[in-house]
Every structure is written in C-alpha cells, then in structure tokens.
Amino acid sequence: MTIRALQSNEVDLCRMLRLRALADAPEAFGVTYSEAVFYDSAYWTKFIQSFTPPSKQRMLLACDGDVCSGSVFAMLDGERKDAGRVGDMWVDSKHRRQGFGQALLDAVFGWAKENTFGELWLWCEDGDNAAHRLYQKAGFVYSDNRDTTREKIDKDLIEMVWTA
C-alpha cells in the first residue's frame, strides 16, 4: 500500500473514487451518489483544483498497486489559521481493517505538521463504531460539539479533535 496526493491531471480518478465512496457508504457524506453522478466535468475540474497545488488542501489516496481503494481530505479550517480538518474519509470495504485508514490519517497528520497546525478536527457519525475506534486509536478525542442538523441522513454527528 502507498499513500499519495491526488494530482491535478487525475480528474477521472477523483470522480471514480468519489462515486465509489458515495455508492459504498451513502449515509456517510454530505452529498449522495444520485446527485454526484450527474455532476459535469467542469464541477470535477473545479473540485480537483481545490485539493491540488497551489491549494494547500489535499485529497490523499491509499493505493494497492495501481488500484486506489481509499481517500481522505486534508482541509484548511475556514475560521482558524492554526487548525485543519479531516474530511470524507473512505476505505473500500475490501480493504478495511488492513491499515489503510490509519495510513491515511498518518498522512493527514504529516500534512498538518507541514502546515504547522496544532489541531485537526473532524465530524463522525454517532453510531459508526468502527470509525470511532479508528479515530480514537489515532489520537482523536471527543469534543462537546454535536451537529443534529443534517437533512440527508438521520444520524447525529460528533466532533472529534486531534492535537499535535
């Protein structure tokens, strides 16, 4: 397994991975497969530009040979200059519990250190015990924040924070 950043010329790979993630875990993301499948190439080009240089944000990929089977977003925090966010983590069900998730998080931690972020935060679905275990094992702790306003799924979100 290798972890690498998505490249600006990999629009088709980005689209394919996002659609696989949305099909595999429809309740886990803020957009649905049935919405994203109709996004045009201009959307995907703009999307990829937000996660490749010169942007500081990254879409990190977990690949087994030529096949990418996991991804995560390493994002800037819109309100704080000393913090980042972890978003839309996904590992193909065939590769779960094989270290892909931890390797992706380790890459995000490296990105955070490069950007001198002292903190990362993420939202995790209440009841997603496997994700909670992964994040806790990686050093995330629960904050007091919850989000109960999501319309597309019926689960609450719990904020988790990692401190460098």
Explain the overall architecture:
By secondary structure, the protein is of the alpha+beta class. The chain has one domain: Gcn5-related N-acetyltransferase (GNAT) (Aminopeptidase), CATH 3.40.630.30. The protein is 31% helix and 31% strand. It is built from 5 helices and 7 strands, in the order E-H-H-H-E-E-E-H-E-H-E-E. The protein has a 7-stranded mixed β-sheet with strand order 1-2-3-4-5-7-6, covered by helices on one side. Helix 1 packs across helix 3. The longest helix has 15 residues, at 100-114. It is globular and about 40 Å long. The mean pLDDT is 88.
Annotated CATH homologous superfamily:
Gcn5-related N-acetyltransferase (GNAT)
Helical amount:
25-40%
Order of helices and strands: EHHHEEEHEHEE
In CATH, the topology is named Aminopeptidase
Number of domains: 1
Biggest sheet, in brief?
Answer: 7 strands, mixed
Query: Which strand-content bin applies to the residues?
Result: 25-35%
**CATH architecture annotation name:** 3-Layer(aba) Sandwich
Class by helix and strand content?
alpha+beta
Query: How many E-type strands?
Result: 7
Radius of gyration: 15 Å
In spatial order, strands of the major sheet run 1-2-3-4-5-7-6
What is the tally of helical segments?
A: 5
**Distance between termini?**
25 Å
CATH class: Alpha Beta
Mean pLDDT: 88
Shape assignment: globular
Uncertain runs are none
